[in-house]
Design brief:
2 domains, alpha/beta, 10 strands, Aspartate Aminotransferase, domain 2, 13 helices, Aspartate Aminotransferase, domain 1, three-stranded antiparallel β-sheet, 38% helix, seven-stranded mixed β-sheet, disordered N terminus
């Protein structure tokens, strides 16, 4: 497996003609206009510090409206902090957290979940299409019950998954029921939760607390925010002292309004869902174009804003030579092509055209 380091600068996406959109990550996208407007509005004058401001209060209330429940809401800087602190709040150092073997918490967070929980062990299991199953969870939980093995306490789901698939609501309910049967809590890593909601067309509540999820880490940056994620505790008893965890971990922003206010910009009038739906549509456009080129093998169903495909070596090298950026070390192999909220049809079509030039084919 090749090792690629995330680029630290800008690279041209159009054959050296200038900087432009890329497929490496939906984090490459800038701040969406609605978030910028909300951020500028929050910058007009002074406001109370450390979250005791009207912007943070309004954003938290708006999230409660979106999810149709009186949940506890906390804003943190990034997804690693959100997941790690949330999991730490659900278990002790001697507990185990059941996750998929491709889960971001296990493969891409540098041990942060274990660090912030003072040692809770991630129990990674396999599952088709990047998903956990009730059977896999039950097998892991019942594998051992002796004092020499971590006591399973939490199940964590990634929605959408690390390979671009989504958990259907019935799948979430079944997993939550299994977790409850074995005395486990349910955490959801929702870095791309918006894309899953747009894909499934269901209310956010149906995909979270109504299905049995206790805590959601709701991703904001991939929806167009400059920075920041929201941690939602649907069971408010689980958030006891969470504010202290945030402070200790360096996640309590003194000027919290700059984390929370942009949420108002995307939560009003369904902006967050429109951006997610657009990113999903660009992924479908890309997948359809790739499918018309038979030498390119799709690896997973395209359900959200990510496309996974097996590229011939010559195609991969040719695309990189033309300035295109994408990862081949994330997920289960192949090339991962991510579409952000700002991806355009023209960029998708230019990418496909470059593939045709490389392959020497004339597919339309």
């Amino acid at each position: 497996m090749s090792r690629e380091v995330a680029p630290t600068g800008f690279a041209p996406s159009d054959g050296g003609k200038g900087d432009g959109p890329q497929f490496a990550s939906d984090n490459y996208a800038g701040i969406c206009p609605e978030a910028v407007q909300a951020l500028l509005a929050a910058n007009a004058g002074q406001a109370r510090a450390y979250g005791d401001d009207e912007w943070t209060r309004r954003a938290a209330d708006r999230l409660r409206e979106v999810f149709e429940t009186d949940c506890d809401v906390y804003f943190v800087f990034n997804g690693t902090a959100a997941n790690s602190l949330a999991l730490a709040s659900l278990c002790q150092s001697y507990h185990g957290v059941v996750c998929h073997q491709l889960a971001h918490v296990d493969t891409d967070e540098c041990g942060a979940p274990e660090f912030f929980s003072n040692g809770a062990k991630l129990l990674a299991v396999a599952g088709e299409q990047g998903k956990l199953t009730p059977r896999a969870i039950a097998d892991t939980v019942t594998r051992r019950a002796d004092i020499h093995y971590p006591k399973p306490k939490v199940v964590t789901l990634t929605q959408t998954t690390e390979v671009g698939t989504v958990y259907e609501v019935d799948e979430i309910r079944a997993i939550a029921a299994t977790a409850r049967h074995h005395g486990l809590r349910v955490h959801m890593d929702g870095a791309r939760f918006a894309n899953a909601v747009a894909s499934l067309g269901l209310p956010p509540a149906d995909l979270t607390w109504r299905a049995g999820v206790d805590v959601l880490c709701f991703g904001g940056t991939k929806m167009g925010l400059p920075v920041g994620e929201a941690v939602l505790f649907f069971d408010r008893a689980l958030s006891e002292d969470f504010a202290y965890r945030c402070k200790q971990a360096g996640q309590l922003a003194s000027k919290m309004r700059y984390l929370s206010a942009p949420w108002l910009g995307i939560l009003e009038n369904g902006v967050w869902l429109r951006h997610a739906a657009h990113a999903n549509a660009m992924a479908r456009r890309l997948a359809a174009g790739l499918a018309r080129r038979p030498a390119l093998t799709p690896l997973f169903p395209v359900r959200a804003n990510g496309v996974f495909v097996e590229l011939p070596v010559a195609v991969e090298q040719g695309l990189r030579a033309r300035g295109w950026l994408f990862y081949t070390f994330i997920g289960a192999g192949g090339a991962r092509l991510m579409c952000g909220w700002d991806m355009t049809p023209a960029t998708v079509d230019r990418f496909l055209a470059d593939i045709d030039v490389i392959m020497g084919a004339g597919h339309a």
